[in-house]
Amino acid sequence: MATVLKSFERWKEFLSERVEQAHKAGMSEETISKIAAQVGEFLANKIDPENKEERILKELWDVADDEDKKVLARCMVKLVSQS
After folding, report:
1. DSSP string, 41-60
2. Distances (CA, A) of 12 to 34, 57, 63, 65, 66
3. Quick check: helix, strand or coil at residue 74?
4. CB-based burial, 68-80: b 16+ in 10 Å, e otherwise
5. Cα separation of 35 and 4, whole Å?
6. Which Pfam families match (predicted)?
7. d(CA 75, CA 77)
8. Torsion angle of alpha carbons 3, 58, 21, 30, nearest 10°?
9. Which domain covers residue 50, as residue numbers?
10. pLDDT at res. 77
11. What are the pLDDT digits (tens) for 24-61?
12. CATH code: domain of residue 34
């Protein structure tokens, strides 16, 4: 995981692969977004950002309320799904 976090492009690629696997497993967009929010919460609480993009996401996450976090998670899923 640490190698994935060194580069934001690698992180997006990693997340894209996980989202694709979730779709293939039959998960709904809502379920995928909920899992993404849980991952975001874990990363914000346990992992020190490795690059400027992750730092910005963490700062946004830290000021977000629960609804904002759901939106951020959905946006990240959309971002990597369109790549």
Report:
1. HHHHHH----SHHHHHHHHH
2. 17, 13, 22, 23, 23
3. helix
4. ebbebbbebbeeb
5. 18
6. DUF3243
7. 5
8. 170
9. 2-81
10. 93
11. 999 999 999 999 999 889 888 888 888 899 899 999 99
12. 1.10.760
- What radius of gyration, in Å, describes the C-alpha atoms of the chain? 12
Question: What is the helix, strand, coil percentage profile of the chain, to 5?
Answer: 80, 0, 20
Write the CA distances from 60 to 17, 37, 51, 63, 82, integer angstroms.
Answer: 24, 13, 14, 5, 22
Only one residue has tokens 């759901």, namely 70
Residue-wise pLDDT for 1-25, tens only, equals 555 566 888 888 888 999 999 999 9
User: Structural domain tally of the chain?
Assistant: 1
Please tell me what DSSP assigns to residue 26.
T
Q: Which residue has the tokens 């995928």?
A: 32
Q: Among all chains, which residue has been given the structure tokens 């899992």?
A: 35
